[in-house]
Protein backbone atom coordinates (compact mmCIF):
# COMPACT_ATOMS: atom_id res chain seq x y z
CA UNK A 1 0.00 0.00 0.00
CA UNK A 2 1.40 3.37 -0.97
CA UNK A 3 1.89 6.09 1.63
CA UNK A 4 0.24 9.50 1.16
CA UNK A 5 2.91 12.20 1.11
CA UNK A 6 0.41 15.06 0.91
CA UNK A 7 -3.30 15.31 1.68
CA UNK A 8 -5.36 18.45 1.13
CA UNK A 9 -9.04 18.51 1.99
CA UNK A 10 -11.39 21.38 1.06
CA UNK A 11 -8.41 23.72 0.92
CA UNK A 12 -9.11 27.36 0.10
CA UNK A 13 -6.58 30.08 -0.67
CA UNK A 14 -7.48 33.71 -0.11
CA UNK A 15 -5.57 36.94 -0.79
CA UNK A 16 -7.05 39.82 1.14
CA UNK A 17 -10.78 39.71 0.52
CA UNK A 18 -10.35 37.82 -2.74
CA UNK A 19 -10.74 34.03 -2.83
CA UNK A 20 -8.20 32.64 -5.29
CA UNK A 21 -9.15 28.98 -4.96
CA UNK A 22 -11.91 27.20 -3.08
CA UNK A 23 -12.49 23.62 -1.89
CA UNK A 24 -9.42 21.96 -3.42
CA UNK A 25 -8.98 18.32 -2.37
CA UNK A 26 -5.98 16.27 -3.41
CA UNK A 27 -4.11 13.20 -2.20
CA UNK A 28 -0.53 12.69 -3.39
CA UNK A 29 0.73 9.16 -2.84
CA UNK A 30 4.15 7.68 -3.32
CA UNK A 31 4.57 7.06 -7.04
CA UNK A 32 2.35 9.95 -8.11
CA UNK A 33 3.14 12.70 -10.60
CA UNK A 34 0.58 15.53 -10.39
CA UNK A 35 0.29 18.60 -12.59
CA UNK A 36 -1.50 21.68 -11.28
CA UNK A 37 -2.88 23.08 -14.52
CA UNK A 38 -4.71 26.23 -15.55
CA UNK A 39 -4.18 29.59 -17.16
CA UNK A 40 -2.09 32.48 -15.86
CA UNK A 41 -3.44 33.93 -12.63
CA UNK A 42 -5.60 30.95 -11.75
CA UNK A 43 -3.66 30.31 -8.52
CA UNK A 44 -1.21 27.52 -9.41
CA UNK A 45 1.77 29.12 -7.65
CA UNK A 46 -0.31 30.16 -4.64
CA UNK A 47 -1.57 26.60 -4.14
CA UNK A 48 1.89 25.10 -4.54
CA UNK A 49 3.27 27.55 -1.97
CA UNK A 50 0.40 26.61 0.32
CA UNK A 51 1.42 22.97 -0.03
CA UNK A 52 5.00 23.98 0.82
CA UNK A 53 3.74 26.04 3.79
CA UNK A 54 5.37 29.11 2.30
CA UNK A 55 2.20 31.02 1.42
CA UNK A 56 2.00 34.65 2.52
CA UNK A 57 -1.74 34.49 2.00
CA UNK A 58 -4.54 32.94 4.02
CA UNK A 59 -5.05 29.20 3.67
CA UNK A 60 -8.13 27.44 5.03
CA UNK A 61 -9.02 23.77 5.22
CA UNK A 62 -7.00 20.71 6.10
CA UNK A 63 -3.46 20.13 4.88
CA UNK A 64 -1.19 17.28 5.92
CA UNK A 65 2.10 16.38 4.31
CA UNK A 66 5.40 14.72 5.01
CA UNK A 67 8.31 16.89 6.13
CA UNK A 68 10.54 15.33 3.48
CA UNK A 69 10.01 18.08 0.88
CA UNK A 70 11.95 19.90 -1.83
CA UNK A 71 10.36 23.12 -3.08
CA UNK A 72 11.60 24.90 -6.20
CA UNK A 73 10.03 28.22 -7.17
CA UNK A 74 10.15 30.44 -10.26
CA UNK A 75 13.57 31.74 -9.26
CA UNK A 76 16.54 29.50 -9.99
CA UNK A 77 17.86 30.27 -6.47
CA UNK A 78 21.44 30.45 -7.70
CA UNK A 79 24.20 32.85 -6.71
CA UNK A 80 25.65 34.47 -9.81
CA UNK A 81 29.09 34.95 -8.30
CA UNK A 82 29.45 31.19 -7.71
CA UNK A 83 29.99 28.44 -10.26
CA UNK A 84 27.33 25.79 -10.88
CA UNK A 85 29.45 23.31 -8.94
CA UNK A 86 29.65 25.68 -5.96
CA UNK A 87 25.93 26.43 -6.09
CA UNK A 88 25.10 22.73 -5.85
CA UNK A 89 27.31 22.18 -2.82
CA UNK A 90 24.49 23.46 -0.61
CA UNK A 91 21.20 21.65 -1.11
CA UNK A 92 18.10 23.80 -0.44
CA UNK A 93 16.39 20.90 1.33
CA UNK A 94 18.99 21.08 4.08
CA UNK A 95 20.49 17.71 3.19
CA UNK A 96 24.18 17.16 3.71
CA UNK A 97 26.44 18.56 1.02
CA UNK A 98 26.60 16.15 -1.94
CA UNK A 99 29.88 14.65 -3.06
CA UNK A 100 31.87 16.04 -5.99
CA UNK A 101 31.00 12.91 -7.96
CA UNK A 102 27.27 13.35 -7.27
CA UNK A 103 27.44 16.98 -8.40
CA UNK A 104 29.28 16.10 -11.61
CA UNK A 105 26.77 13.34 -12.34
CA UNK A 106 23.86 15.73 -11.79
CA UNK A 107 25.35 18.44 -14.00
CA UNK A 108 26.06 15.89 -16.71
CA UNK A 109 22.47 14.64 -16.53
CA UNK A 110 21.14 18.11 -17.39
CA UNK A 111 23.81 18.83 -19.98
CA UNK A 112 25.85 21.56 -18.30
CA UNK A 113 28.86 19.68 -16.95
CA UNK A 114 31.03 21.61 -19.42
CA UNK A 115 30.05 24.83 -17.60
CA UNK A 116 30.57 23.47 -14.08
CA UNK A 117 33.35 25.93 -13.23
CA UNK A 118 32.07 28.99 -15.09
CA UNK A 119 30.63 31.85 -13.06
CA UNK A 120 26.87 31.24 -13.01
CA UNK A 121 26.11 34.87 -13.89
CA UNK A 122 27.69 34.26 -17.30
CA UNK A 123 25.32 31.43 -18.21
CA UNK A 124 22.20 31.81 -20.36
CA UNK A 125 18.73 31.67 -18.79
CA UNK A 126 18.29 28.11 -20.05
CA UNK A 127 21.65 27.00 -18.66
CA UNK A 128 20.85 28.55 -15.28
CA UNK A 129 17.55 26.72 -15.25
CA UNK A 130 19.33 23.45 -15.99
CA UNK A 131 21.77 24.07 -13.12
CA UNK A 132 18.85 24.66 -10.75
CA UNK A 133 17.15 21.48 -11.94
CA UNK A 134 20.36 19.52 -11.46
CA UNK A 135 19.36 19.48 -7.78
CA UNK A 136 16.70 16.96 -8.74
CA UNK A 137 19.47 14.56 -9.75
CA UNK A 138 21.12 14.76 -6.33
CA UNK A 139 19.94 12.79 -3.29
CA UNK A 140 16.52 14.38 -2.71
CA UNK A 141 13.48 14.36 -0.41
CA UNK A 142 10.55 12.19 -1.42
CA UNK A 143 8.06 14.97 -2.21
CA UNK A 144 8.95 17.51 -4.89
CA UNK A 145 6.92 20.71 -5.24
CA UNK A 146 8.06 22.44 -8.44
CA UNK A 147 6.77 25.72 -9.83
CA UNK A 148 6.92 25.91 -13.66
CA UNK A 149 9.97 23.61 -13.92
CA UNK A 150 9.93 23.57 -17.75
CA UNK A 151 10.44 27.34 -18.09
CA UNK A 152 13.40 28.29 -20.33
CA UNK A 153 14.16 24.65 -21.21
CA UNK A 154 14.55 23.41 -24.77
CA UNK A 155 12.89 20.21 -25.98
CA UNK A 156 15.80 18.02 -24.89
CA UNK A 157 15.81 19.60 -21.43
CA UNK A 158 12.08 19.02 -21.06
CA UNK A 159 12.48 15.36 -22.08
CA UNK A 160 15.27 14.84 -19.53
CA UNK A 161 13.20 16.41 -16.78
CA UNK A 162 10.06 14.41 -17.60
CA UNK A 163 12.07 11.19 -17.49
CA UNK A 164 13.49 12.23 -14.12
CA UNK A 165 9.97 12.83 -12.76
CA UNK A 166 8.97 9.29 -13.68
CA UNK A 167 12.18 7.83 -12.26
CA UNK A 168 11.65 9.64 -8.95
CA UNK A 169 8.03 8.50 -8.72
CA UNK A 170 8.87 4.90 -9.53
CA UNK A 171 11.48 4.88 -6.76
CA UNK A 172 8.88 5.82 -4.14
CA UNK A 173 8.83 9.60 -4.41
CA UNK A 174 6.16 11.94 -5.74
CA UNK A 175 6.10 15.10 -7.84
CA UNK A 176 3.64 17.98 -7.86
CA UNK A 177 4.39 20.63 -10.45
CA UNK A 178 2.68 23.63 -11.98
CA UNK A 179 2.52 24.22 -15.70
CA UNK A 180 0.18 25.86 -18.17
CA UNK A 181 1.37 23.49 -20.90
CA UNK A 182 0.80 19.78 -21.39
CA UNK A 183 3.45 17.33 -20.20
CA UNK A 184 4.32 14.16 -22.12
CA UNK A 185 4.17 11.79 -19.16
CA UNK A 186 1.58 9.36 -20.47
CA UNK A 187 -0.84 7.55 -18.22
CA UNK A 188 1.31 8.17 -15.15
CA UNK A 189 0.45 11.87 -15.13
CA UNK A 190 -2.48 13.05 -13.03
CA UNK A 191 -3.85 16.52 -13.73
CA UNK A 192 -5.73 18.85 -11.39
CA UNK A 193 -7.27 21.67 -13.43
CA UNK A 194 -7.52 24.63 -11.09
CA UNK A 195 -9.93 26.41 -13.40
CA UNK A 196 -12.60 24.31 -11.66
CA UNK A 197 -11.69 25.70 -8.23
CA UNK A 198 -11.44 29.42 -8.91
CA UNK A 199 -12.80 31.46 -6.02
CA UNK A 200 -15.76 33.79 -6.25
List keywords for this structure.
five-stranded parallel sheet, alpha/beta, three-stranded antiparallel sheet, 200 residues
Overview of the molecule:
A 5-stranded parallel β-sheet has the order 5-6-7-3-8, with helices on both faces. 24% of the residues lie in helices and 28% in strands. The chain is an alpha/beta fold. The chain has 5 helices and 8 strands. It is globular. It has a domain of 99 residues: 3-Layer(aba) Sandwich (Rossmann fold), CATH 3.40.50.300. The N and C termini lie far apart (38 Å). Helix 5 links the parallel strand 6 and strand 7.
Structure classification = alpha/beta
**Major sheet: order of its strands?**
5-6-7-3-8
- Mind telling me the CATH superfamily name of the domain at 1-68 and 142-151 and 174-181 and 188-200? P-loop containing nucleotide triphosphate hydrolases
| Low-pLDDT residue spans | none
Radius of gyration: 17 Å
CATH C-level label of the domain at 1-68 and 142-151 and 174-181 and 188-200: Alpha Beta
The end-to-end distance, rounded to whole angstroms, is 38 Å
The major beta sheet can be summarized as: 5 strands, parallel
Counted beta strands = 8
Helix count, per DSSP? 5
N-to-C series of helices and strands:
EEEHEEHHHEHEE
The second-level CATH architecture of the domain at 1-68 and 142-151 and 174-181 and 188-200 is 3-Layer(aba) Sandwich
From the 3D structure, determine the CATH topology of the domain at 1-68 and 142-151 and 174-181 and 188-200: Rossmann fold
| Molecular shape | globular
- Residue-averaged pLDDT: 89
The amount of helix comes to: 10-25%
Give the strand content. 25-35%
Amino acid sequence: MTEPLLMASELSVQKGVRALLSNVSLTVNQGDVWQLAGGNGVGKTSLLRAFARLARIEVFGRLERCEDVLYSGHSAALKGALTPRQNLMTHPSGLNAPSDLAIDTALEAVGVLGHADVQTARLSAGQKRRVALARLFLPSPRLWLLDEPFTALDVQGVNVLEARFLEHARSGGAVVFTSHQSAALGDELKVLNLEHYCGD
